[in-house]
Amino acid sequence: MHARTLMLLTTTLCVGCSAPAPADVQLRPAAQRTRAITQQARDALAEAVEVYDARRAEAWLNATDVEERLETMFSEGSYEYFANNGAFETLFFFGDEAFEAERDRYAGFGRVTSSPLAAAASVQRIHDGERGGLDSSSCRSCHFNGGPDGAGNATQVALLRGDGVHLSSSTLRDAPHVMGLGYIEMIARDIELELEIQVDIHRIQASFSTDDPYVGPLQALGIDFGAVLIFQDGAEDYGFVRGISPDLKVRPFGHKGRHRFLTDVADEAFAVHHAHQSTAREARYTSAWVDDEPQEDIDARQHAYLGDGEAGDRDADGVVDELSTGQGSLLATYMSLLGTPTMRPPADPAMALVWAEGRALFDDVGCTACHVESLRLQTTDLFVQSFDGRHPATWVPLLDEGQEPKPSRNDFSADALGIPLFAFTDLRRHDMGDSLADDVDEELPDGAGAVPRRQWLTRSLWGLADTAPYLHDGRAPTVHDAIVAHDGEARDARDAYVNLDDDEQGAVRVFLHGLGREPVMMVE
Amino acid sequence: MRAQMMSAVVVATCLAGCPTGVPPAPAPIIVPPVVVPDDDAGVPDADAGVVDAGVPVVDAGPPAYVCPPRPNVPHLGLGHSELSEEMAQAWLDYRAERDAERFAEAKDPAAQWAHHRVEQVDIDHGCYALDDVVDVGRALFTRRFRLEEGFGNDLDDHAAAGAKPRPNMRRFQAGAFGGPDATSCLNCHWKQGLGGSGDRADNSFLFGDGDDVTTHDERNPPPLWGLGWVEVLAQEMSADLQRQRDEAVADFDASDETTRRVPLTTQGISFGQLLLSKRNARVHVDTSDVEGVDGDLVIKPFGYKGVFPELRDFLMHSLQVHLGMQAEEVLPLVASGAITDLDLGNGPADDPDDDGVERELTEGQLTALQVFLATQDVPVVDVPGPEDFAIRWAEGAELFEGIGCAYCHVPFLKVAQPTYEVHPTLSGSTVRVDLQHGARPLPSTSDDGGFLIPVFSDFKRHHMGDRLPAQHAERGVEADVFLTRRLMAVAQTGPWMHTAAAATFDEAIYLHGGEGSEAKGASDAFFGLTDDEKGAIRVFLDSLRRAPSIRIR
Predict the structure, then answer these.
(1) Which residue among A49, A168, A351 sits closest to B211, beta carbon to beta carbon?
(2) pLDDT tens column, B135-189
(3) 8 A C-beta contact, residue A469 and residue A155
(4) Closest Cα partner for B305 from B229, B217, B230?
(5) Residues of B in contact with A439 (CB under 8 A)
(6) Tens-place pLDDT, residues A13-62
(7) What does pTM read for this prediction?
(8) Nearest CB neighbour to A125, from listed B107, B132, B213
(9) If both were cysteines, with which of B33, B338, B347, B355 could B49 make a disulfide (CB 3.0 to 4.6 Å apart)?
(10) Phi, psi of A145 (to 5 degrees)
(11) Coil, helix or strand for A32?
(12) Hey, which residues does A223 pair with through a beta bridge?
């Protein structure tokens, strides 16, 4: 084959017709360079080796005892036991294991099957409606780009809500990194609380006002959320609320602003990516959402989100009660406790100046109108919700128990209340124009209506350097491509960037590439 | 050997019809490499990079060849798999360089890309040490390619390409054109380190219509460690089989026999037999009873179905179908018909994917990628330390053989001469790398000086039955036929099988046992074992790992 290749090629090109014999070269190694060993290297190595040894021991146990794999499958009881005793380190450890664990049929991973082993071929890359995949076997599958708990690659794009067969029927979603999400959830609750208080105040003011309707502007943490209209007869109109759904709930997770709570994220991910249905999920989608809801509506919802299997095993994989509510809480707690991405300006002084220029330009061209540099945490604690809503929320004192790096108060001026979170988002939705739009509106899984096809949640930019490709479907290979693809409400800022000269554009990109994360040494 | 054959071909061809108007190029002058001053990099040793071509260095005549500076890419060199503080420091330094490169890249991507554009002619002139070439290869392997570098395509009148704006990505590949479905090699080869396997979510969807999942064959990205040794091993086995054939043909030709059966065996593995006969006083070789390898007796160790003889073939294909990065070398190979199973697009001859970028990857860059992969370490057998697990491991090793797994997953095969050769087809040069200079650990040696590679494969193709679905034949290899997967680092490369359908060893073994599978007996035997025995086999499989190595995420 190779000889044929050469011959054909030679005939065609007559390579070396006039040259002497082709080169024959031996590549030899360069001299070893000697390095000064830093304490950082010693410490990082020692820690990485310790983790490796522990993992290795775990693997032998898993190999000999199939039950061993299930140790991260927490029940509600075991989750509550650790949570109520403040054993966050333990929860983090098991959450970490669960995040990396390969899910298998034995534990109810998967769908229709006659025997757990025979189901091995049931992988489904293109999702089938809201029920989804399964398309991956661990959380880590799609959250490892740039490091543990990172983003997904181009190949790991999820193909959601399709017909199960055609790529063109599916909605593409790039997997975001999952760092710092506990703090994001806290900010979302802060905003909700603030808006709730404002609505109460507006009701009082409307009762003293002669305006019909009374227009009550809504604003929280300096971010505009439109207005509520209150009529003289007491009726309220939430049709002019902007950036969030009319129920005034902030949904900071998912590209469209889909989920309020990390438990919802975890539960849905288990269901659609691993075909792992929780007991609480079954309860949610088989019960009435409003009083006197017609049974056929409930049935339709059950069909769409769960499947038509027997009670207790709606995905009909032969495994009953395959996931407890505790499992979602465990993963939500784990993700909350993760550290945040960090700003890592260049070490080189000249490049650091470029970075500083870029930071100023990022503001000047108007990116920060939506990618708000920092939001300030008003609270210090997170309440992890249970997915079924029946168990009490778990109190997690995040600023004490969270992993490093975590947000810290680094300024103490009188007008700066709260702890800044440099997430570069306003946590609201914006119209991003036609070119970025989905084909259809996205129905929210909690019954709060749909998100219009052109609207997207402002993506937080922290950690951005390690999360290429960019945008909701990963269409942009570079930061530059991503900026240029912005449209709709971001068109002016986009144009302002495009009109910068090359050096200025470069500076903006340098700044953005400083939004990274602390490197982790691993032994694998 | 190949170079000689090639020159012979060149001479013969040119005698027949060399273009007359072309003046002869001056003979290349080969000089020692230019040593680029670099404070922290040490100095190459005395013979580093000296050309080994048997051509004397000439002092007079045309000006000496001027090497470009060493490529300015992050340095890790061969990146040995060893848990030393030196390696930990090397990785920290590498990470710092990567960070600096990232900012430089953000500021001026074109200038940064220029550092990665090594040319084959400079490699041929001995300008670079092995470490430099490996550094460039690693930088390319981890690089997310940009539109300006040729990533993707801009075709809209080519049915296979689709019609979206550049890069025109498509998660499912269309026919022989491909995606692109990835932005970097590392997208799919990431588990447990650079060059690892991919997850189920990374699976490629090949040979289909680009939309309907049922028209595609799914392939899980395999790990890429130790492939230099694998390629050399396959070449030595092929050469052995071909020698047996040639000797038998010569002997048979000289004999009075009219037919002869010639069993083919190398490294103790039977590849069936040849049937020799004579027609019109000429020897006729019937290869229909040859097993597990094509009639040309060339073992092709790459691809799930064993279709690529060399890493370079595999690279050219992967770069096209996954990334839309068209190696300059692949253009004439496709144009001449030497490669027939790739569709580059219907754009201009110099830019078939019509994205305005020519020479998307130079011949030298392809060489760098190939050398980077070839010098990756070979995974090892890492026996458990604690005694009770060591005992189970030994029991598992015995059972692995006892129930018949080792019949195809042959544990160790031997490499006699660890010289890896790179054959860039445009320059026609030969670049040699002594694999003993590659990343540690090296394979253990046998008494006769050979190297024992724990491949756990017989390098043969087998029918694998109906539990492993596939629908397309590939390069003439039937749909249900697969090369025995090497179990190198199998513990770290799950989920397993060609579609990553198996999340556990048990599932993987189960999938071997379909109707029509040559491995059905062994698979059934496994499920007849006691729980303890199955556990022992799993402990054994879990020992097939890459030596623990450092990485910074």
Answers:
(1) A168
(2) 999 999 999 999 999 999 999 989 899 888 899 999 999 999 999 999 999 999 9
(3) no
(4) B217
(5) none
(6) 444 445 567 899 999 999 887 899 999 999 999 999 999 999 899 888 88
(7) 0.91
(8) B213
(9) B33
(10) -65, 120
(11) coil
(12) A220
